[in-house]
Amino acid sequence: MDAKQLFFERYDGFQEYPVLLLEGMSEAQIRQSPYPALNPIAWILWHSARCEDVGVNRLLVDRRQVLEDGAWPSCLGVDDRRLGTGMTKREVTELSERLSLPDLAAYRTAVTERTVEVVVELPSEELSRQLAAERLQQVFMEEGAGGSAATQLVEAYAGHTKGWLLGHLALTHPFYHMGQAFVLRAMFGLPNPW
Predict the structure, then answer these.
(1) For residue 71, what are the contacts with CB-CB under 8 A and spacing of at least 6?
(2) Could you say which residues of the chain have pLDDT below 50?
(3) Which one, of 81, 71, 52, 61, lies nearest residue 177 by Cα?
(4) ∠ CA 81-152-87, rounded to 5°
(5) Which residues pair with 130 in a beta bridge?
(6) In Å, how far are 28, 82, 126, 166 from 88, measured between CA atoms?
(7) Gap between the terminal Cα atoms of the chain
(8) What is the pLDDT of residue 48?
(9) For residue 22, how far is the Cα from the chain centroid?
């Protein structure tokens, strides 16, 4: 089994998690957090999709983000290209309140479809290539994806390979946040959907 096969072994099954997560939840529960220090589920789903969109489309390969195709920003209710890392609590709350939840689900699906397309087409040897510091600076700083955390993101990603990036932004990072989201679900008193 090569690295791409291993990636798809885990990635393919993960796409049902957001559907199970939201089962039986009210819109208010999705948009609000039961505990002030935790981000709402709406923000978690948006942030995970944004990180994957930027990471796969701008850093793994050099193509437009899904967000830039069509009218995603206006449909979603967002006015910038940030990932969300470094947002203030107020920004997180405001974004969570205005996101269009049906369009967020559609955006997440579009990001997933693009990730599959990119990884299928990506030559396996590309996964061993190191991320270029100049490219990280361009995407996180000049293009604005990193927002107020741009410098920290460049430093955190510098020195890693494209394979690490794919594993991080399309697997481990969203799994981490999905765990947070299921804790929030439990805090609302909702049963585990499994």
Answers:
(1) none
(2) none
(3) 52
(4) 45
(5) 161
(6) 20, 13, 35, 27
(7) 29
(8) 97
(9) 17
pLDDT in tens, 111-136: 999 999 999 999 999 999 999 999 99
Whole-number pLDDT of residue 14: 87
Q: Name the nearest CA neighbour of 164 among 129, 117, 115, 123.
A: 129
Return d(Cα 75, Cα 178) in angstroms, integer. 23
Phi, psi (degrees; rounded to nearest 5) at 130: -80, 145
Whole-angstrom distance, CA of residue 138 vs CA of residue 174: 23
Helix axes 41-54, 101-121, angle to 10 degrees: 30
Alpha-carbon gap, residue 32 to 149, rounded angstroms: 24
Measured CA to CA, the distance from residue 107 to residue 18 in angstroms comes to 13
pLDDT, residue 112, reads 97
